[in-house]
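Structure tokens please, single chain.
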Amino acid sequence: MAAVSCRGVTKRYITGSTHVLALRGIDLDARMGELLMLVGPSGCGKTTLISVIAGILDHDEGDCVVFQHDLRNLSQGKKIRFRGKNVGFVFQAYNLLPTLTAAENVAVPLLILGEGRLQAQAKAKEMLSQVGLKDKMNALPNQLSGGQQQRVAIARALVHEPRLIVCDEPTSALDADTGRLVMEGLRHNALSSGRALIIVTHDNRIFDFADRIARMDDGRITLIESQVASA
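Here you go.
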């Protein structure tokens, strides 16, 4: 089953008189129960593509359908609700709120969706335990290492049980061992529940975690490779 289906997707950025075509007719599917990686040189359109798929950016032409919904056809309010329920996004810079504890940061998506504070905190603590941070529940972000902050960000993306998880360079600032630990936890927690997982990365150390690798260059998909992923 396709979680995401992109056909002929284009995206332009306009700055003054300058027009930059960031996506040039993207055709791509992301399937339930797989880890799809987007790889390619900086500036080739990877982050723009996942931002369109996640409903953060609108595309200009073509179709991008996520769970049978073209987000471009939804009102802003409906799009925010759809994204909040169905999509978990792991940002490259973590985007943790500095004055909140790890558990409070993870609980944020649940609170936004209207869950009660006590229940949200309980689910957040359970998710932190699953990513190996049981002893860091009350730590502030500046008290955590880069790898620990990344796992908090992943727990936050997973806590509301979205069907699609999108990650932008989740291991770029991590050493090899920590990066593999993060990927093992991310793959296990996301795909054991049959979700779809899309990861943008330059990190060839983690390519073996992918079920498929889509290579991008100059706003286009140039090649899609299937492989046997690491467990």
